């Protein structure tokens, strides 16, 4: 007899786990809106911290709210010195996503007020702390991987420039902002800021539903994002493009291997559970890629391979029949590479972008009177009752 079983839905394709007022997606029409605002308008006109405020609080900030919010974040960028040896304990070869999820989980040990998930003031201050500190932790993971000393945040810089300085300067005065790169990164962060109930956000909600603190929940979200089918796809795309270039096999032959599902090979950066037309973010990312490469005067042969792959796929019935289009991860890596980030930093950049969404969704759930601990059903297919064999004794 099956007990408690009401339906089987692998991958939650048909199951809504929550109501939400944060992000709207129409996958057939390629529409994405944060709190009602079209992604195209936010990407063009807004800043990342304004979008973070919007996602978290539901409305765009007025000037004084924006000033207060950005100032609060600026004031919390410093990390406790005691946290830094955590980085030294890990090998230089550590993947920055592993470093990041560990460091975020460890932050909870410094901010135990986060344990009271029903105290609005504690939720507020720990929201600010996470927004301020995650970019610093990511930059330190990067610095550690290249064997360089950590930089202190320079709070005279804006959010994006501070992050770029922490990654690329070896002393503060050395950093010279490049407005084209800063704006491109700001745009990319905005494009990643939320995407309703994707795997990492659902993870944040599931962990949060147990009333675990916000750091534990976000750390779990970072772990879920790490995988190549989710945020890790941006790293996987660049590896795929580099392999196509180095092997010399040619785009046509690679696409044939994808279609024949040889060795499970996929066209990374293509396909989406929700978008069955062009991912609206991918269009905007491609525009940024063109702008950044032109402004740096970079000619990247990987961009040509990516464009050739896209054309092949869009004109091929395998991809047309399955409604597979480029997703947000297809072109981002080319931009991050041009900015000077190593491939392994691509997914941490996604995590920084997605953080406001995780925080907004965690807080929405926390305030929803209908929310309950997440606890999926299963369809049990194992053995029926049987007796432990007589005469067996391992004690
Ligand atoms: N390359 C080749 N075939 C694909 C691809 C791909 N990228 N994506 C889906 N398919 C095929 C799949 O094999 C299946 O074929 P068939 O019907 O013959 O069995 C069909 O299309 C339907 O795919 P699915 O696996 O049922 O789709 P899903 O909704 O479960 O998976 C996905 C969505 C994003 C995991 C998948 O499209 C994929 O693995 N894409 C590559 C990884 C990637 O780019 N991920 C980033 C997603 S966007 C950013 C984010 O949210 O993190």
UniProtKB/TrEMBL annotation:
Keywords: Acyltransferase, Transferase, Tricarboxylic acid cycle. GO terms for molecular function: citrate synthase activity. One of its GO terms (biological process) is tricarboxylic acid cycle. Gene3D superfamilies: 2.20.28.60, Citrate Synthase, domain 1, Cytochrome P450-Terp, domain 2. Pathway: Carbohydrate metabolism; tricarboxylic acid cycle; isocitrate from oxaloacetate: step 1/2. The active site is at residues 272, 329. Pfam families: Citrate_synt. One of its GO terms (cellular component) is cytoplasm. It comes from the Bacteria. CDD domains: EcCS_like. It catalyses: oxaloacetate + acetyl-CoA + H2O = citrate + CoA + H(+). Belongs to the citrate synthase family. PANTHER family: CITRATE SYNTHASE. This is Citrate synthase. The lineage of its organism: Bacteria, Bacillati, Actinomycetota, Actinomycetes, Micrococcales.
């Amino acid at each position: 007899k099956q007990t408690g079983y009401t339906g089987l839905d692998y991958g939650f394709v048909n199951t809504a786990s929550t109501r939400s007022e944060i992000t709207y997606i129409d996958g057939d029409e390629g529409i994405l809106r944060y709190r009602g605002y079209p992604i195209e308008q936010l990407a063009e006109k807004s800043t990342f911290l304004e979008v973070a405020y919007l996602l978290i609080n539901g409305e765009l900030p007025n000037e004084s709210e924006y000033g207060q919010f950005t100032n609060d974040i600026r004031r919390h960028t410093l990390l406790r010195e005691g946290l830094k040896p955590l980085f030294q304990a890990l090998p230089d070869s550590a993947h920055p996503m592993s470093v990041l999820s560990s460091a975020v989980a460890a932050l909870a040990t410094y901010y135990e007020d986060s344990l009271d998930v029903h105290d609005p003031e504690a939720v507020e201050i720990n929201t600010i702390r996470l927004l301020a500190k995650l970019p610093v932790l990511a930059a330190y993971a990067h610095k550690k991987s290249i064997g360089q000393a950590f930089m202190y945040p320079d709070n005279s810089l804006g959010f994006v420039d501070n992050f770029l300085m922490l990654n690329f300067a070896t002393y503060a005065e050395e950093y010279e902002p490049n407005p084209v790169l800063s704006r491109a990164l700001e745009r990319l962060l905005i494009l990643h800021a939320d995407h309703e109930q994707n795997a990492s956000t659902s993870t944040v909600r599931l962990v949060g539903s147990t009333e675990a603190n916000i750091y534990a929940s976000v750390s779990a979200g970072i772990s879920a994002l790490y995988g190549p089918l989710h945020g890790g796809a941006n790293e996987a795309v660049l590896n795929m493009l580099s392999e196509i270039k180095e092997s010399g096999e040619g785009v046509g032959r690679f696409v044939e291997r994808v279609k024949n599902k040889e060795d499970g090979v996929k066209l990374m950066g293509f396909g989406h559970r929700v978008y069955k037309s062009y991912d609206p973010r991918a269009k905007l990312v491609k525009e940024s890629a063109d702008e950044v490469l032109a402004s740096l005067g970079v000619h990247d042969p990987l961009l040509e391979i990516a464009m050739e792959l896209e054309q092949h796929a869009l004109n091929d019935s395998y991809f047309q029949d399955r409604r597979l289009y480029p997703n947000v991860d297809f072109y981002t890596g080319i931009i991050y590479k041009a900015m000077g980030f190593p491939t392994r930093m691509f997914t941490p950049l996604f995590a920084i972008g997605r953080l406001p969404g995780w925080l907004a969704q965690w807080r929405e759930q926390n305030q929803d009177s209908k929310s309950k601990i997440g606890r999926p059903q299963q369809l049990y297919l194992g053995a029926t009752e049987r007796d432990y064999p007589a005469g067996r004794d391992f004690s």
